[in-house]
Write a structure and sequence with these properties.
The chain is of the alpha/beta class. It is built from five helices and five strands, in the order βββαβαβααα. The chain has a five-stranded mixed beta sheet with strand order 3-2-1-4-5. The radius of gyration is 17 Å and the shape is globular.
């Protein structure tokens, strides 16, 4: 499975591509950041993020895009920018028919480090170790994007089994009510 992880942000949108399957060593195919100038208008910044995401989708052809789920923060302005960048990533993937998965920051931290309260340094260190890299990806947004991809690859089999079980249960209930 090839997954593009996206850590959304207006100034720095982390992107990283990981390939592999749960239970096997994973491989980083690419990592980086889509940057936009803080002085540019919101519309122009979103267009630049779209162009950046489209370039990554063209180059790496992921099977799935994993995006950090926006969560409530104290700074509404930061939340809005993050949500807008997140929507651009989801739109780019959906336009191409690529499935999108959303993962919360604590879900990603727990999957990669074992603790949902891990700090950025711990996430970077584990991403470095798991992908057998020489050094942690910089900036932290890039490491976070790789962590999102890793989280999805590891969690996808369990999520698929849960979805199948729910579908089978719903089918059985419908069968009994007929």
């Amino acid at each position: 499975m090839r997954v593009l992880g996206v850590d959304p942000g207006l100034t720095r949108c982390g992107v990283g591509v990981v390939e592999g399957v749960a239970g096997r060593p994973l491989t980083m195919l690419g990592v980086g950041v889509v940057r936009t100038p803080a002085e540019a208008g919101i519309g122009q910044r979103l267009v630049e993020i779209e162009r950046g995401i489209e370039t990554w989708l063209d180059e790496y052809r992921p099977e799935l895009v994993a995006v950090e789920r926006v969560f409530s923060q104290h700074n509404v302005r930061t939340v809005m920018g993050t949500a807008q960048a997140s929507a651009v990533a989801m739109l780019c993937a959906s336009r191409r028919g690529i499935p999108v998965a959303l993962h919360t920051p604590s879900e990603v931290k727990a999957a990669v480090t074992g603790s949902g309260r891990a700090d950025k340094a711990q996430v970077g260190a584990m991403v470095t170790r798991l992908l057998r890299l020489a050094a942690p990806p910089k900036p932290a947004d890039a490491a976070d994007a790789l962590a999102l991809a890793i989280c999805h690859i590891w969690r996808a089999p369990a999520q698929n089994r849960l979805q199948q079980a729910v579908a089978q249960h719903a089918s059985a209930v419908r069968g009994r009510t007929r």
